[in-house]
Design a protein that fits this description.
Elements: E1 3-7, H1 11-23, E2 27-31, H2 34-43, E3 48-52, H3 60-70, E4 75-79, H4 84-92, E5 97-100, H5 105-124, E6 130-132, E7 135-138, E8 143-146, E9 149-151, H6 155-166, E10 171-172, H7 173-181, H8 189-203, E11 213-216, E12 220-223
Parallel strand pairs: 1-2, 1-3, 3-4, 4-5
Antiparallel strand pairs: 6-7, 7-8, 8-9, 10-12, 11-12
Amino acid sequence: MNEVLFADDELTIREAVAYALRVEGVKVRTYDTGSGALDAARDRSFDLAILDVMLPDISGLEVCRRIRASSGLPVMLLTARDTEADLVLGFEAGADDYVTKPFSMTELVIRVRAMLRRQELDRSVAQRAVTVGDLSIDLARHEAMVGGVNIRLTPTELRLLTLLASEDRAFSRREILEHVWETMFVPDERSCDVHIANLRRKLEDDPASPKRVLTVRGVGYRLGGR
């Protein structure tokens, strides 16, 4: 049974989300503070963390950063704001997905199920490694290396990079979003651009002049170095 960590300081939201996920057969542990969520993430093994950005002691963004510093645990943020600046902050903190408040419970459940399903698919993937130029990707082991140096990526960044490496062509933003989220509820195209920017920051010698993750004008993105 999948187990989810859920942190929100509003009791009614904690109870409603926990109930909706438990009906779907997901075990849920709820917390009302960022410190409680962090302690739980260190002590237990979860399949997904859902964090409200506005937690009372430690922000959900900071909790996400600390989880990401030592773990590949997928993280979904709940936020009341959806400007591009907010998306950048969330994804740079290491989040894999976000849902804007107020949210549809149906959408949240579908997004959670999609993230858990991606976890299972990643664990059972047949093709363990892909190499393009000096970049190597191992989806099953959640590893990416550039020139022999291990690069820490979020689960979403790794899936995006694996898609770009799967074919020698450009992928549209919509193709990327549909592949990475695998659900009818996908973020807008700004999310794709933010993830691409984060990948470049981690993979490129000079993110302003990328040689590995390339823009194809009028189409989308492709992987260079083939």
